Amino acid sequence: MKKVIMIAGPTAVGKTELSIRLAKRINGEIISADSVQIYKSLTIGSAKPTLSEKCGVPHHMLDFLEPSASFSVSDYAHMARKTIEDILSRGKTPIVVGGTGLYFNALLYDMDFGSAPEDVDYRRHLEHVSNDKGSDYLYQILIEKDPDTANKIHPNNIRRVIRALEVIHITGKTMGDFAKDPVPVSEYDPILFGLTRSRMKLYGRINKRVDLMLEAGLIDEVKNLKKDGIDDSCQSMQGIGYKEVLEYLDDKYDFDTMKSILKQSSRRYAKRQMTWFRRYKEIQWLDLDAYASLDDIIDRILSTL
């Protein structure tokens, strides 16, 4: 079986630097598993690696989608698996890196709810319901039927809400079943590592990252997106950092309140990420605080391989 290295972990834990150092050691190429870094122009708020940070390592599934576009887990699975095949065909090692749990599911398991059969009549029925009773009405139904998926969809993203309800209607299963009843992928051998730190150190890194993002021009980045017609109805703007700044620009908060909420939202997101990744029985955890250097961690990864 051809090996695919996967590195998961919460925001700001240190995935980017470690994965790039690892890729240089083994002649690997990186595939992003981040649902915000896929978008063009969403650079600062998504902590997208810069050209210099990439150190010449090829990166895929990064910075390719217009901010106005929607992108499903099924879309990600299709593109990322083709990328994995391409990297393997060239004798290199794919390294999947990110913090979006559903993207890891799409590459670890062969349960693709995104490609479930369609029921056009039922979808139109839900569209009529939304027009009559409002998008929040359908969102509340999704919360009752599949709270995990609802937590990852903005209430205004009615297309995704309707699709989630349609999949439940057709298959009798929810996206939550994706993690509960997995069928391991068969075309390659995924080796999953999870990065962690003490809560105090992780939260300190998150708070510092928010400060650096704001200093680097996150507010101007969001202003430019707004000028291009990108608002909170777009899937891209549901990422943490972007929705908070949008609310600040709409005078919902003052600057200090926005910064505090952004840090709090980021810490809560990190907690949800850790809860998600702990579901994987096959994950091998690496406590970054327990190693003297990144090279020691990489040696540990390579010894496992």
TrEMBL record:
Stretches the record annotates as Interaction with substrate tRNA: 34-37
Q: Which residues cross the membrane?
A: none
InterPro entries referenced in this protein's UniProt entry, alphabetically: Dimethylallyltransferase, IPT, P-loop_NTPase
Enzyme Commission code:
2.5.1.75
Which HAMAP family does its entry note?
A: IPP_trans (MF_00185)
Purpose: Catalyzes the transfer of a dimethylallyl group onto the adenine at position 37 in tRNAs that read codons beginning with uridine, leading to the formation of N6-(dimethylallyl)adenosine (i(6)A).
Q: What is this protein called?
A: tRNA dimethylallyltransferase
Which source organism does the UniProt entry give? Fusibacter tunisiensis
